[in-house]
Design brief:
mainly beta, 6-stranded antiparallel beta sheet, 54% strand
Amino acid sequence: MISVNDFKTGLTIEVDHDIFTVLDFQHVKPGKGAAFVRSKLKNLRNGNTVERTFRAGENVGRAHIDNREMQYLYASGDEFTFMDTETFDQFSLSREQLKWELNFLLENMNIKILSYQGEILGINLPKSVDLKVVETEPGVKGNTAQGALKGAKVETGLVVQVPLFINEGDVLTVDTEDGRYISRA
């Protein structure tokens, strides 16, 4: 058990039989009434974000999440197969479990699998990945203010807003949090 007074960003907790990670929290001590902790939590099972208020000093369960090194092998229909790099055990995750992450997954990529008591919650991607541009319009100079952008489709199917000088065949570094262009690789 852990007290809500000890919340930290990134802490994983168990509340009402669900697993959450703390995204944000704020200790509030009003002039009148009892103190409380206002928090923003992300459900690791379904990805939903909820805001929840706890009484100061209230205890919640601590969830110990396992991070195991895995390698993405291949896709077969709506199933995506991964292999444990130590034991060579293989297992599959569905398209539903990997909605956002599919925009960045390449075959043979090493990632971390998040699991709680044997239940796989999802995958943890690196902060950025390098992806090849497969389709983009040529950049046209003129009639642009600074910072002009165009769409570029990368090898995973994600469309990234990039500067005009990016061409087909270029390799981009893309942020996996929000899918934005960082630089040319």
